[in-house]
Amino acid sequence: MGAGSATKSILLVIGCAGIATATALSAGECESHTLTPEFISFFHLQGSEAEDPAGDADHDLLTSGTEERLWTDPLNPDTDGDELLDGSDPMPVSQAVIDWGDPLFTSGDFYEYAAPPWWGAAFKRGGAWREEPAAWCTSTNGASLVVDFDREHLDADMLVTLRWSGDATAYCEVFLVDSNGIPCAKLAKPLTLLHAVEPSEFAVPILTTTAATTLEMRFFGHDVCVEGTVIAPLPDIYTVDPSFWDMAPEDGEVLPVADPRDTDTEGTGTEGSSTGSRPTGGRVIYVDKAYGSASYSGLRRTPKGNDGPRASIRDAIKNIARAGDTVVIAAGIYKEGENVFLGANDIRLIPQGHVLIR
Hints:
- Helices cover 11% and strands 30% of the residues.
- By secondary structure, it is mainly beta.
- The strands form 4 sheets. Strands 2, 3, 4, 7, 9, 10, 11, 13 and 15 form a 9-stranded antiparallel β-sheet that branches.
- The radius of gyration is 25 Å and the shape is elongated.
- The N and C termini lie far apart (83 Å).
């Protein structure tokens, strides 16, 4: 073996600057390679040791140049938080780690960090970011954290770990939602804060909810703060207990969202024979000009028996929906007049198909 071959062999094993790498470079590449502006900006490497493509600023056995190809964090030795150094990890981005409110990776309502191929987006609906310590916080019932995922790259059920805190009234409703914003599965029992220092864990039935594209966590109670969420593939030896989840019926009946402390689950303002205030929402209300009726509850997508969708958008917003609810409007021509959306500031509206309002 000649001198040139010997040098190449050493570099294949050791890589640039004598650091073991997953993908080796030649000596010429070590000298000429520079990190792209996109990579430097994404991980906020400006002015740090990690800007040197041949260096290993976080001592994870990978050069910054290799971390760029793997899209791992050159300033975090364990990008996916699985307790394996990136350079020793066969899948250095095997799970999604969401540090909600981290100012380096939060922009507007969105959080973005190194993530697996199935990752779509992570964002908040309502609430506010807290910088120190980083978290998302809310005292508004029904505010939520949302994670979108790409079904083409997702072939396993998921395990979610949630680090959160709140007062004694706090709880969390968990939904799997389809691309139209309609819940297709719901965690049967809300998550509650039994032990404030311990995270909540739950398994998500991805494989049996083929229409689901979004995980939504809706929070209720006062002074709720979520510091982090980890979403990881569930190992093959485990399965999701189907009794832990309520699945959407095939006939289109909506999954209920109800405060477990509130016996007025129908939203009528009554509790037994006593009069009470209307609780905060989180339900899906359906409106359909063709098949709806003012006598229906609006909690069913299609008519069945004496129940079904409402016929008027204005009526649904004014008399049925409440803060935190979603109103799904079927295609059609609606004669609603002026100020049809009055009072809908805290209500999510989703048109399905072509909706014309006159």
